[in-house]
């Protein structure tokens, strides 16, 4: 018997997102996300307990504002003192790791899936998942979009509204669409 769609997704192979097992996992994530987004802040704390249990890792002092959305949750690891502002969306079809003390502004979006370029295969739900890695002490400005397979180095800054399509070296600032290194004058 061949690999399941979940196993193919985890292995970084083409898989169909139209799959009963993946549907069940997304439903579980939506339930945890709903709980997080609807709990009163005084009851929610840093994040709803159901959401924290879903994650691969939730560091000490990490905090997620509501509303928040993730696709699966089990691929998401937050380091210590990570802060996700309101409206962040993380479509974690692959591993997403956010290093210690990194901060994401409001409405930051991280997408791990790339849909097939062939129209027929895309209509069948074919996609491939590529991990996203964000180093320590990174600042990502509001409404920035981080695409599949990108790594952002320690201490980097991503300007508000930037669309990050390539790796960002440590300690640099990128802005724009597509994001480019900010030149110093």
What does this structure look like?
The protein is an alpha/beta fold and about 180 residues long. It has a single domain (about 5-180), classed as Hexapeptide repeat proteins (UDP N-Acetylglucosamine Acyltransferase, domain 1, 3 Solenoid), CATH 2.160.10.10. The chain has five helices and 20 strands. The strands form four sheets. A seven-stranded mixed β-sheet has the order 3-6-9-14-17-19-20, with no helix packed on it. Strands 2-5-8-13-16 form a five-stranded parallel β-sheet, with no helix packed on it. The mean pLDDT is about 95.
What key attributes describe this structure?
single chain; 185 residues; alpha/beta; UDP N-Acetylglucosamine Acyltransferase, domain 1; 5-stranded parallel beta sheet
Describe the protein's topology.
Layout: H1 5-10, E1 15-16, H2 20-38, H3 41-44, H4 49-54, E2 57-58, E3 63-64, E4 68-70, E5 76-78, E6 83-84, E7 88-91, E8 96-98, E9 103-104, E10 109-111, E11 113-115, H5 119-123, E12 126-129, E13 132-134, E14 139-140, E15 145-146, E16 151-152, E17 157-158, E18 163-164, E19 173-175, E20 180-181
Parallel strand pairs: 2-5, 3-6, 4-7, 5-8, 6-9, 7-10, 8-13, 9-14, 10-15, 13-16, 14-17, 15-18, 17-19
Antiparallel strand pairs: 1-12, 11-12, 19-20
């Amino acid at each position: 018997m061949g690999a399941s769609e979940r196993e193919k997704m985890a292995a970084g192979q083409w898989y169909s997102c139209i799959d009963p097992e993946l549907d069940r996992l997304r439903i579980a994530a939506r339930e945890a996300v709903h709980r997080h987004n609807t709990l009163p802040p005084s009851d929610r704390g840093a994040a709803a307990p159901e959401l924290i249990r879903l994650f691969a890792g939730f560091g000490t002092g990490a905090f997620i504002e509501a509303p928040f959305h993730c696709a699966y949750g089990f691929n998401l690891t937050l380091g210590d003192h990570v802060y996700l502002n309101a409206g962040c969306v993380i479509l974690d079809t692959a591993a997403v790791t956010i290093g210690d003390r990194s901060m994401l502004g409001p409405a930051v979006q991280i997408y791990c899936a790339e849909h097939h370029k062939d129209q027929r295969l895309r209509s069948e739900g074919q996609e491939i998942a590529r991990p996203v890695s964000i180093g320590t002490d990174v600042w990502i400005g509001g409404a920035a979009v981080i695409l599949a397979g990108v790594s952002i180095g320690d201490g980097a800054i991503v300007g508000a509204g930037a669309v990050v399509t390539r790796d960002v070296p440590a300690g640099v600032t990128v802005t724009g669409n597509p994001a480019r290194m900010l030149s110093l004058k």
